Amino acid sequence: MHDVDKVIAEIDRAQDEIVELTRDLVRIPTVNPPGEFYEDCAHLLGDRLAAFGFDVDYIDADGRPEHSAAYPRVNMIGRRRTDAGPVVHLNGHIDVVPAGDGWTVDPFAAVVRDGKIYGRGTCDMKAGIAAAVFAAEAIRRAGIAVPGAIEVSGTVDEESGGFAGVAYLAETGRIARGKTDYVIIPEPLNVDRICVGHRGVYWFELTTRGRIAHGSMPFLGVSAIDAMNEAIAAIRRELEPALAKRVTAMPVVPDGARHATININAIDGGQPIDGIQTPCVADRCRAVFDRRFLIEEGFASAKGEIAAIVRRALASMAGVDHAIRDLMVVEPVMTPNDSPVVAAVDAAIRRVLATDARLVASPGTYDQKHIARIAGIPHCVAYGPGELELAHQPDEYCRIDHLVSATKVMALATLDLLRSARL
Ligand SMILES: [Zn+2]
To answer: How close is the Cα of 196 to the center of ligand 1, in Å?
Structure first.
């Protein structure tokens, strides 16, 4: 029997184990915020990997403010080395977003029904983590001697930026160029798609300031809310049509996200709305914006464009001041088209699913940004089971046939990469 067929046979045999590991992971409600039960989840994974021949390390995010006694940020890395050769790292985040309303099943019971596993985090991304574990294990069970090392990590806080998770492992050299060759992140991008990066993110806060006055004589004051209204109107009128015309060459899905976009996250002006009201003209208003910029635009031009539009909009309003403060900047990330990791996953998808893989880019960001920017590793993709549209939704689920297929794809891609040259 050919090695590839042996691995596929082992995964078919392990189907129930893969489903049960996914369910065990989902039953630990690692809800973020605030970041609950990370330690339990890291140990469940670590124990399983140790039983599968991995050396396992637990890494607390010491020094990070969110790593507290109440909510410890515990990451897990398992490593199985057989011989000198490439290092393939499979990384999944163990945190899930809050369940929210609208569920028809218990979000943490991991109910199996009609060939699907239901629960918060089934698709995003505990099925992906189970797939990573069994991709590695199937290679071992098939008795295939391969050079190199397989690493599987479970990391925290992806949903809140990943700073105590993948970023921490990259900053402390656990994941690093020269040490780690290829990274696959099994985020739920659909079983036949390979994700090669994402657009850039610019979060900023715009503050407008006017002058307080009696609310019965508003003409004696300057309303900061009116000023914010002007700024937002200018953004709607001038910026949005321009952004809608800009299309990236990156294959971002869905189609609407191939454009540059802007969203208002929050707005707050005048008196606290639930407090006791007094007649006053609002002298302060703040809003937080989320601008997604294209790799072709670049951060400096996206930032400069907004500053100019707001400045122009408010220039004619006497007595208005404004300030823009950067809250977060994430540069766009794109895996090189000719990366061996893209070729390996592409070939594995064709072998397992008998279909051509589609290259996509994510509408939002994920931990690849830290792999690329901090660890300096360009050869990273997201590939895993689960449908992107179901992430963070009520009644989130992962199809079991997709889980099994993605495990096969990850195993074959890993095998292929372990046999390739070291970078
Ligand atoms: Zn995710």
So the answer is: 15
Taking the centre of ligand 1 as the mean of its atom positions, its distance from the CA of residue 391, in whole angstroms, is 8
Question: Ligand 1 centre from 203 Cα, in Å?
Answer: 20
Q: Bridge-partner residues for 261, per DSSP?
A: 292
Query: What is the CA(368)–ligand 1 centre distance, in A?
Result: 11
Spacing, Cα 184 to ligand 1 middle (Å): 13
Task: Provide the residues around ligand 1 (an ion) whose CB is within 5 A.
Answer: 124-125, 187
What's the chain's average pLDDT?
A: 96
**Alpha helix segments (H runs only) across 177-328:** 224-234, 240-245, 299-315
- Please give the distance, rounded to the nearest whole angstrom, from the Cα atom of residue 243 to the centre of ligand 1: 27
pLDDT of residue 83: 76
Alpha-carbon distance values, 242 to 29, 137, 293 (Å):
43, 50, 12
Three-state SS at 387: coil
For residue 65, say if its preceding peptide bond is cis, omega within 30 degrees of 0.
no
pLDDT at 420: 86
CA–centroid distance, 121 to ligand 1, in Å, is: 8
Q: 295: which residues sit within 8 A by CB, 6+ positions away?
A: 199, 200, 248, 249, 250, 332, 334
CA of 241 relative to ligand 1 center, distance in Å = 31
Whether the pTM exceeds 0.85: the reply is: yes
Distance from Cα 124 to the centre of ligand 1, integer Å: 5
Ligand 1 centroid–CA 171 distance in Å is: 21
- Report how far residue 287's alpha carbon sits from residue 299's, in angstroms, rounded to the nearest whole number: 20
Which of 134, 179, 186 has the alpha carbon at shortest distance from 155? Answer: 186
Taking the C-alpha atoms of residue 170 and residue 174, their distance in angstroms, rounded to an integer, is 6
Give per-residue pLDDT as tens, 358-399. Answer: 999 999 999 999 999 999 999 999 999 999 889 999 999 999
**Structure confidence at residue 422 (pLDDT):** 66
CA of 186 from ligand 1 middle (Å) equals 8
pLDDT tens-digit profile of 35-87?
999 999 999 999 999 999 999 999 999 999 999 999 999 999 999 987 789 99
**Local mean pLDDT, 10-residue blocks, the chain (423 residues):** 94 98 98 98 98 98 97 98 89 97 98 98 98 98 93 97 97 96 96 97 98 97 98 98 96 94 96 95 98 97 98 97 97 95 98 97 94 97 95 96 98 95 66
CA of residue 370 to ligand 1 center, whole Å = 14
Give residue 65 CA to ligand 1 midpoint distance, Å: 22
